[in-house]
Amino acid sequence: MTSKVNPLDKLKKVHFIGIGGSGMFPLAQVIQSRGIQVTGSDITESETLKKVKDLNIKVFSSHSASNITDQDLVVYSSAIKPENSELKAAQSKEIRTVKRSCLMGMIFENYENSIGVSGTHGKTTTTSMITSILIDAKKDPTAIIGGRLPKINSNCCTGSSNIIVGEACEYDDSFLCLNPKISVITNVDADHLDYFKTFENVKKSFSKYASQTSELITINGDDSSARECVKNCSAKKIFFGLSSSNDVYVENIVFNKRQCANFSVFYKKNKLIDLELNVPGTHNVYNALAAFTVCYEMGVDPEIIKSSLKDFKGAHRRFEILCEKNGITVADDFAHHPTEIKTTLEAASKMGFSKVWAIFQPHTFYRTHMLLNEFAEALRIADKVVVSDILPVRDVNIYGICSEDLTSKIPQSFYKPTFEEICEFVVKNAEPGDLILTLGGGNIYECANLIVKALEG
């Protein structure tokens, strides 16, 4: 029998266009760890780009055709336009070009035990939990995470085992490049409709991804759409959730003052263990159950899982407490979809703060336009709401949408275009006992940092 040839084995030099992106850096790190020479380009200085340079990777500060020489492969993300000079240069030299998602698929092929974590919400936290557990279990995994995990102070680690865990993102059908051994579906919601157009198309994409999983798929059984997506999946299925109709479920759930849960885990009616979380909200119970199920099925001792989950304090930008000064708490969260915002604010509202300030940066004109009423409903949970200008990412404003359209639907809300104006307004009006929570998928964390700096004086 001939052994399978991995496509990475033929690579000697790989170039990343936009190497400082949070999704590109971990792939570059994994590729470099295999002894492949890596170069990249990025026009924006960032914390991630500094980490790239710390790995002694040659980085060009501009996109130029001259950066493309004799590479075997050029990698680009969905954000890179077809007219990009480096992309065109690679094509003219007949150098193979692939999207980031395609390279991730190639990397997954290199590992006997590959774990893809999919879902509209919760991918980063669940991937981080699984990674933490596997590290604590001495499994030495490779991990590709959508946010920084404090345990490794990075969004990537390169282990020596045959295990890899990574986020399987649905946008642009990216996760269809993966054929994992084990998959997670945390939930299935209507998002990225600029690409999918309809929720039915979202579900079709998740169904196809599920069908590409070879051995085990773990599914949020309380999510009817997630259940629908795996009904024709041939891999072994394990459903998790709060309800006892699932294979893995909880009983005796109790939330403390910080809204972190303690509960008992049951598997097919048999109690396995009691878990204690240090991340807030019901959504993190689901994330923890997903991580527990995967690691338990991989043979990790439940006591190790318990200890690891108790120690897990969250991933970067997932209800991350930044400071507590003069009685005012500042936190930051990646929530950028109404479901995520609603879940986060519901948890925050139960934590005993005098007032919850939601500082929201809308992310893309299309999403804001399509989900305007849903955003308003979610944000109304907060006591005070401040909305910045909409952050354009992949789109232009052909809808005539603006942030005032959102604030007009929310009592006690204010429109402040810039982070500087938001910071000045919030610091002036927040009082001891308040929580200031920045929300959004863009660079709203910069506003949080401004607020922290102003409070610390």
Name given to the CATH architecture of the largest domain = 3-Layer(aba) Sandwich
User: Percent of residues in helical segments?
Assistant: 25-40%
Using the alpha-carbon principal axes, give the shape. Answer: globular
CATH superfamily of the largest domain: Mur-like, catalytic domain
Q: Radius of gyration, Cα only, in angstroms?
A: 22 Å
CATH fold category name of the largest domain: UDP-N-acetylmuramoyl-L-alanine:D-glutamate ligase
> Strand share of the residues?
25-35%
Distance between the termini: 68 Å
Estimated structural class: alpha/beta
Q: What's the arrangement of strands in the largest beta sheet?
A: 8-7-9-6-10-11-12-13-14-15
Give the uncertain stretches in residue-range form.
none
Annotation field: number of helices: 16
Question: Largest sheet, described in full?
Answer: 10 strands, mixed
Count of domain modules: 3
How would you characterize this protein structure?
The protein is of the alpha/beta class and 457 residues long. The protein folds into 3 domains: 92 residues, 3-Layer(aba) Sandwich (Rossmann fold); 201 residues, UDP-N-acetylmuramoyl-L-alanine:D-glutamate ligase (3-Layer(aba) Sandwich), CATH 3.40.1190; 137 residues, Alpha-Beta Complex (Protein-Tyrosine Phosphatase, Chain A). Helix content is 33%, strand content 25%. It is built from 16 helices and 21 strands. The strands form 3 sheets. The chain has a 10-stranded mixed sheet with strand order 8-7-9-6-10-11-12-13-14-15, sandwiched between helices. The termini are far apart. The mean pLDDT is 94.
